[in-house]
Structures are given as C-alpha cells and as structure tokens.
Design goal:
18 strands; binds magnesium ion; 732 residues; alpha+beta; Ubiquitin-like (UB roll); single chain; 13% strand; Creatine Kinase, Chain A, domain 2; 24 helices; 7-stranded mixed beta sheet; binds adenosine-5'-diphosphate
Length: 732
C-alpha cells in the first residue's frame, strides 16, 4: 500500500465531520446580476449548426450530407475547423483531442496542441480539416480482444458531427474535445459509439416505414430518444483513501452493516445534506455549461446515495452526455472533498446503483411512438409499437442480459433490491388488460375505424391515470417510454442501447413485411395492426410480468415460463459465442461476427481481471488491516487475562473474546490461503475460469467477507484500522 494509512480512523472522522460546504458562486452578468442557466447553458460547447462563423450555405450542405449518410467535403470541414479553432482559442483552449469511448467503458482522449507554424515559420493556432476529421491513436493500447495483430495496430478516430464539441476545463487550461468514433485499420469498430450510431441509423428508417404503413403519412424520419438517470454514492475523501478496496475496486469488499441502513426509508427524497447540495449546485452549473440538460437531483434509497437525471435528448448525444456526467461528477465532487462511487454495489446489503435508461422513439413531427394517442386512430399504432418492443425483448432476452452484464452489476441484479437478471417487461395493469382483451377478441371490432371500444380517446387518459409504478422490473413501461432499469450505474449506456435498438429494429422489419402483405390483401390499416399485435403479443406475453420482480416466486414462475435467467456475467457473455442468440445483430448490420468475438474476449477478460484484482485486494487487506487489528485486540486481552490471573481475578468475558477472535483469525487466514492458491493455478480456458470465479471463488470470497465482518464486530473501534460503513455512509 502506497498511501499513508496510519492516520487513525478517529482522526479521519474528525476531518470528515469538520468540513464546511464548499462555497462556489455562479458568475455575475454585465448588469451585476447572478447569471441565469439560460445565460451560460452550453457555453462550453460548439455545434456547427448554431455557429455564427459558418455560413448558412455550408451548414446546409453539411446537414444534407449527414442526412444522406455521405461524407462531408473537405472545404466544409475546413470551415468548421476554422470556426471551432477561433472559438476554442478565444475561450482559452490550447489543445484539442479526439474524444472517444473505447471498450473499457470509459472515455479516452489524445491531446494535440493548436499551436503550429504557418508557411512563413510564424507560430499560429490551427486545426486542419484532416485533424478535425480523423485522428490516429495507437489502437494496440486499447482493448481489442486479440482481434488484430500488431502490424495492424493502427486505429482511426473519426469525427462524429452529430454530437457537439466541448471544452473541458481544468485549473490550468482548457482542451477542446471532438467526439469521435474509433475503428481499426480494417474498419472494425473498437468502441461503444460506432455500433450505437449504426443501430440508430437502422432503427430510424424501420420505424419510419412502420409509421407510414400505420397511416402516418407525414412521418419522414425517426430518432431514438434517451434520458439516463444516474445513481451514485458519495463518500468523504478521507475515508475513501483509507479503504484500499474502494480505491482499487470501487466497492467495499467487506464491512459490517450498521444498525440503521435503509429500513426507515427516510433517505429517499429526504433533505439533501448541505455539503452534498453544495456539490450538486456546482455540478449542475458545470453540466449546464457543457450543454448537458441536467434537470433533477435528489437523495436515493440508501444513505449516502443520490441521483441526477437530465432532460432526454437524441440517444447518441445522451450517450456522450452520460459519459461526461460521470467524469464531471467525479471532478466536481473531489473539489468538495468527496469521492463518487459509480460501482453498482459499493456496500453489500445496501441498495445498489443503476442507470435507468429511459428510451423511446420520436418522428420528425414530434410524435413520440410510445405516447398513447389522444386520437383513437393512433391507439392501435401505439399498441403495436409496444407489442413490437415486448416481442423484441422476449426474443432477445439473452443478448439484452449480456449487454448489461459486468462484475459490478452481478452483485446488483438479483440482489434483494434490484431488478433480477431475468429480462421481462412491466406494462402495468391497464395495458396488460388491453392486450389480453385483444388476444381474446373481446370488446374490439377490427372492422371499423374506432376500433377500441374502451371509449373513443380514453386510452391516453386510462394510461395517464395508471400511476402504478413498478420499481422491481428490469424494463418498465412508464407512461410514454420504456425504462431499462437493469443497466449498471458505471456502464456506458451506448452498448445496452445498441442491442436494444437492434432487437427492436429486427421486429420492426418483420412487422413492416407483415403489414405490407396484409394491406396488399386489402385489409384496413386497423385490421392489419390488430393482426400484428395478436401475432407478436401472442408469442411474447410470457415476457410480461407486472408482479414483484424481487420475489422468489418470480424466479420459479419465470423458469416455468421458459424465460432465461443468466445469473452471472460469464453465463451472460456466453451469448456472444452462440450464433443463434446474436444473429440479429449481424443481420441488421450492427456488428460483424469478428466484432462480436472481439467484444466477447474483451468483456470476459475484463470480468476475470476485475475479480482477480478484488481477490488480491481482499487478501491484502485481510493481512494489512483485519488480522493486525485483531491481533492488537488479542494482545490487549492476553495481557488483561494474564494480569487478572496474577491477582486471582476472573476473566470470563476476556477469555471468551480471546477465543472467538483467535478462531476467526484462523478461519479468515485459511480461506485467504485457499483463495491465493486458486489464483496462482492454471487458467487457460477463460470461459471455464470465469465461470468458476463467478460460482466457487465468489462463494469463498463471500464467506471470507462474512468472517471479516464478524471480526469487525468483535474488535472495539479503537483497534479497528479501517473506516466502517457507519463512517462512509453517514459522516459528511
Ligand atoms: P420518472 O420516470 O421518475 O417519472 P420522468 O418522467 O421525468 O421521471 O423521466 C425520467 C427520465 O426519462 C428523464 O431523464 C426524462 O427526460 C426521460 N424521458 C422522458 N420522456 C422521454 C422520452 N420520450 N424518451 C426518452 N426519455 C424520456
Ligand atoms: Mg424514472
């Protein structure tokens, strides 16, 4: 351990509890008034569409090239490059970088100076068209799943014009970030963004065609919309650095529960602590300057847990924004002497964190495809859209589970207060009843235009009044969107959205073929839509579950229904080795087979590495902290017992405690030796090794954590060398 951890826990406690909220002031405008959000919103972003330094003609040309999926002309890129350089330099930027999302799940950037020489050898600030459009980071330093040999190690980052550029500000300067996609020399995607963009570009036309077939002649294009709610924990910096497990693995590997956790349910929406609110205020300010539409902030269920949610945007932008949310959050929290924990389960036994990915689609007229229509004619279109999505979810439950897998989320999915690893959809009572009625041909007359007998335009009212919320479903319909709640708090949302978009595209394409055929046979739009709903829902009602997803009964019931339950990451990742499971991703042009293989290798390796780091950290902490704390207590007890014996006093408690501590030390030591031996074994078959980690080794580790917790409870505070859950969750 490199950090000086000898500072006593009580001194850390003093430090954490004596801090004041960090004062930060929003700057004043020219009139001496505090600036409003609308004054500074987006001031750190540059969008060619709104730049005054680019002519309307150029903007129009770029947009039409984008719409047609063509590359843009070099002189147009030059115009943007000049405008953005002038803007960035004026705002104090010295460097630019191609900002991308490699398969690590985070973001990467390679900085380059604007500084350059002109023909006369004079120093200038410049960004050329080609520098804007393409970069060439060494791909071999990023996970590539063994898909390329070193001579092909070149990778390219390509400017994504659909997401605004932005400035990152640090104490000593600013850097212009250019959102880019990252592909290999051979054109294989090595990032999160490329397949996401592909999936959006496939879903859009398929959904548009569906709308047109459903009678929406004005629909010309459809975009995917997303608003990602972000949950997180905040821990005082002093405690964070005193817990090597938090630093190395992002979660506590052990820790005894406090007497009050979340039983009283008083934290959710409760009063936000001053220091935290001070952080949130500065955090919101920074997000708004970055053009990220942060909207809500509140406490979450667990003590020390919070949430932010933005106003939804186009999915690709939402995905970039969420990455920026995570980095900005960390940066600002640290200024407030707090550390953000984005791990899905930082504290065992306490609520985990997720990322609720609210997802929908909307067309060029502003129509939200998941908005129950206020016009009766649109009710069937709405119901058919829901049926398409549920069918997609049902058919592709395994790949969707795969897309949200990861070592962290394994602790959360299926734990007592998180959506289970069984993928199902929640529709709510009303919708459920409507679908059942349709299936049973009840009170529906598909021959007239006013097909829904529930009353002319009552569907939207019915659903609006249908306020029941289900917090236990991994994929819940929430009025006018689906909420993919099983996504982990640390995940890049791009990947799960890609798989979801692709799954839905696949069914849209089939639905369109069906509708065309039925309409061709002379059926009315309503008849055709109704037929479609029956066909899709008939197959997929089994994936609809409106009950308590946390209950044991659901696991049994789901298995009876034949729904897959992939409990661990290695199990879920196996989906990527089964052609039948992932073929829709290839069929719809989202991934090549090799790209699936790449991802499988990377994610599996990542899982193994994360667990190995956890195991090694655990062994280390047991020997550095837990056992030494126990031994110190033991020696005090031993001296007491000895002394008391000399004077003929009784030592019943002391002897008992001494024995208990001794036994626990031996137990935890033996377990840690077993684990150590396992780690040094031969692990050539990665899939098998990962599966063994997920089952056997994780069981060993859970037992070890249990013994550590018992020791923590036996040892008095004064001897225990690590901050406890009490400190990390309650003191700030
Ligand atoms: P709640 O689900 O808690 O009631 P909201 O309805 O405000 O909260 O929505 C939560 C998130 O869903 C917000 O980020 C919001 O912007 C997003 N959202 C709302 N409508 C849509 C939509 N049509 N598509 C995608 N996300 C949406
Ligand atoms: Mg919500």
């Amino acid at each position: 351990m490199t950090t000086d951890l000898r500072e006593s826990v009580s001194s850390l406690r003093n430090r954490a509890t004596s801090r004041n909220p960090r004062k930060f002031t929003i700057p004043l405008d020219n009139m001496g008034q505090t600036k409003k959000v609308s004054d500074y919103y987006g001031e750190l972003t540059f969008d060619f569409k709104t730049s005054e330094d680019i002519s309307d003609a150029v903007k129009k040309e770029i947009i039409s090239a984008l719409d047609a999926g063509r590359g843009i002309k070099k002189e147009h890129a030059e115009a943007v490059a000049n405008a953005v350089t002038a803007w960035a330099v004026k705002n104090g930027a010295t460097h630019f970088c191609h900002w991308f999302q490699p398969l690590t799940g985070g973001t990467a950037e390679k900085h380059d100076a604007f500084f350059s020489f002109n023909k006369e050898g004079k120093a200038i600030e410049r960004l050329s068209a080609s520098q804007l459009m393409q970069g060439e980071p060494d791909a071999s330093s990023f996970p590539n799943g063994g898909s390329r040999s070193t001579f092909e190690a070149r990778g390219y980052t390509t400017w994504d014009l659909t997401s605004p550029m932005f400035l990152i500000e640090t104490v000593n300067g600013k850097t212009l970030c250019i959102p880019t996609a990252f592909v290999s020399y051979l054109g294989e995607s090595l990032d999160i963004k490329t397949p996401l963009l592909k999936s959006i570009s496939k879903l859009g036309p398929a959904a548009t065609k569906f709308l047109q077939l459903a009678g929406h002649k004005d629909s010309k294009s459809v975009i995917v919309t997303c608003g990602a709610e972000q949950e997180y924990f905040l821990v005082d910096k002093a405690f964070y650095y005193a817990r090597p497990d938090l630093v190395m693995t992002g979660r506590t590997l052990f820790g005894a529960l406090t007497t009050r956790n979340q039983q009283l349910e008083d934290h959710y929406f409760g009063l936000i602590p001053d220091r935290v609110l001070a952080f949130m205020q500065e955090f919101d300010y920074e997000l708004h300057r970055l053009g990220i539409p942060s909207k809500t902030r509140h406490n979450e269920v667990a003590p020390g847990q919070f949430e932010m949610a933005p106003i939804f945007t186009e999915a690709n932008v939402a995905s970039d924004n969420n990455q920026m949310v995570m980095t900005t959050m960390r940066r600002i929290a640290e200024k407030h002497e707090m550390m953000v924990l984005l791990h899905e389960k930082p504290f065992a036994g306490i609520n985990g964190s997720g990322k609720h990915v609210n997802w929908s689609m909307s067309d060029n007229t502003g129509l939200n495809l998941l908005e129950p229509g206020s016009e009766p004619q649109s009710n069937l279109r709405f119901l058919a859209t829901v049926a398409i999505i549920v069918n997609a979810l049902d058919r592709n439950a395994k790949p969707l589970r795969m897309a949200i897998s990861g070592a962290g989320n394994d602790h959360r999915l299926g734990a007592n207060e998180a959506p289970p690893s069984i993928i199902s959809a929640y529709l709510g009572d009303t919708l459920d009843k409507i679908f059942h009625a349709i299936m049973e041909d009840k009170s529906f007359t598909p021959t007239t235009n006013n097909v829904i007998n529930l009353g002319t335009n009552q569907l939207s009212h019915l659903l609006k009044d249908n306020t029941d919320r289900n917090r236990t479903s991994p994929f819940a319909f929430t009025g006018n969107k689906f909420e993919f709640r099983a996504v982990g708090s640390s995940h890049a949302i791009g990947f799960p959205m890609t798989v979801l978009n692709a799954a839905v595209t696949d069914v849209f394409v089939e639905a369109n073929t069906y509708l065309e055929a039925e309409l061709g046979k002379g059926q009315t739009v309503d008849q055709a839509l109704l037929g479609l709903i029956k066909k899709l829902m008939g197959d997929s009602l089994k994936a609809v579950f409106n009950g308590d997803g946390y209950s044991k009964e659901w696991v049994t019931e789901a298995s009876r229904r034949g729904l897959p339950n992939l409990r661990t990451t290695p199990e879920a990742l196996k989906t990527m080795t089964n052609k039948e499971d992932y073929s829709f991703l290839v069929r719809n042009g989202i991934f090549h087979e090799t790209e699936i293989e790449t991802r499988y290798n990377i994610l599996l390796e990542r899982y193994i590495k994360i667990r190995e780091i956890e195991f090694e950290t655990m062994i280390d902490m047991i020997h550095q902290f837990v056992i030494p704390s126990a031994l110190e207590y033991k020696s005090v007890l031993a001296n007491l017992i000895k002394g008391q014996k000399e004077i003929g006093g009784a030592s019943n408690f002391e002897l008992d405690a001494y024995k208990k501590v001794s036994t626990k030390i031996d137990e935890v030591h033996a377990l840690s030796q077993t684990l150590h031996k396992e780690l040094s074994g031969d692990h050539t078959d990665h899939q098998k090794y990962a599966e063994r980690i997920a089952t056997e080794l994780m069981t060993t580790v859970t037992t070890m954590a249990g013994v550590c917790n018992e020791l923590e409870e036996l040892i008095p505070n004064q001897f225990y060398m690590l901050p406890k859950y009490y400190d990390m969750l309650f003191l700030r």
